[in-house]
């Protein structure tokens, strides 16, 4: 008997099964063959903290194989060359990946185009010249990009960015600093947001534009890597732009209206993080239940101890609620609804549940839960991170409260 009354449409259900097959054929065998690489950070990353050549080669292989199989671009709009399957499919695919793999088989995390790293609706309003230049490589998984919005003084308040794009002939020159830019040490392009009309930006009435910049452009620099959670490796960086020249063909969308693209990107990020949270929580909970059945202490399996099983039962209730919230909001989005309140509620709740359930899974496993081979410690870091990324829990609560006060009290 299914736990959830809603059933995916046949094409999405088939997609999820095909993803499982791909994981078993292309992802897990690579992990098993290169187990030492994935369990030892000294092999997976070089001295600077970047992925080793062997690690990057495996990611490239999976990304290319996924593009060939038709998974990589499933949520990319059709007019950009993708399958255009929408938010429900985007959630369903990512949720299946994290449910199947968690943080044990991490190569699977590269098999679908991430909204900020590869082709996505964010690029829909590119100029024809730019589309011809960049889309073939992005669609094939040969190249990648990054999303440069946040700055040292502008995180949750993204409209407060200080990076400037000043007119220079027909184009602009960009100067400023960006931070928390995921994938930037590896990206071929950076999607950068800059103030093009300071007066409108100060009044929060536009004035911000979006440009796509090659990372080999003169004046662009990965200033330094940003190491997090005590790790010696990272994919976050501080970026600097020093009079980086961009031409009109590199403008994405309308001049002075780039903030709309930024908010679309953030919305996509929230759906992605919701899927990660729900899928990872299901994975961690199932690992815990199976472990409780076989791990014995003082002559009895953990499964016979209320102190172990009652917290797992509570976790199951939370995961079920999170799953229902997630399915609801992606259907609202696909139906064309703004769903600002519902997306904020789902992002805050699902991410909180993901963190709590992984923490409970580690506690259930004891010392085994802290080992690299389980992947639970990496999952804990990721779940802690997504309670901040793409809108903190506090910002999500602020949005919900604002919607309620405006009369949007349907629940």
Describe the overall structure.
It contains twelve helices and ten strands. The strands form three sheets. It has a four-stranded mixed β-sheet with strand order 1-4-5-8. Strands 2-3-7-6 form a four-stranded antiparallel β-sheet, with no helix packed on it. Strands 9-10 form a two-stranded antiparallel ribbon. It has 411 residues and is of the alpha+beta class. Helix 8 (258-294) runs antiparallel to helix 11. The mean pLDDT is 95. A hairpin with a 2-residue loop joins strand 9 and strand 10.
Q: Would you spell out the secondary-structure blueprint of this structure?
A:
Layout (H helix, E strand, L loop, with lengths): L9 H24 L1 H5 L1 H4 L8 H17 L16 H16 L26 H13 L4 E4 L15 E5 L2 E8 L10 E7 L2 H5 L5 E7 L5 E6 L11 E10 L4 E2 L5 H37 L1 E2 L2 E2 L4 H29 L5 H26 L10 H11 L6 H13 L6
Parallel strand pairs: 1-4
Antiparallel strand pairs: 2-3, 3-7, 4-5, 5-8, 6-7, 9-10
Helix pairs in contact: 1-4, 1-5, 5-8, 5-9, 8-9, 8-10, 8-11, 9-10, 10-11, 10-12
Keywords:
411 residues, 49% helix, alpha+beta, four-stranded mixed beta sheet, 13% strand
Q: Percentage of helical residues?
A: 40-55%
Oligomer: single chain
Q: Major sheet: order of its strands?
A: 1-4-5-8
Distance between the termini: 27 Å
| Helix-and-strand structural type | alpha+beta
Mean pLDDT: 95
| Series of H and E elements | HHHHHHEEEEHEEEEHEEHHHH
Percent strand equals 5-15%
Q: Sheet bearing the most strands, described?
A: 4 strands, mixed
**Mind telling me the C-alpha Rg?**
22 Å
Q: How many helical stretches?
A: 12
Low-confidence region ranges:
none
Q: What is the molecular shape?
A: globular
Q: How many E-type strands?
A: 10
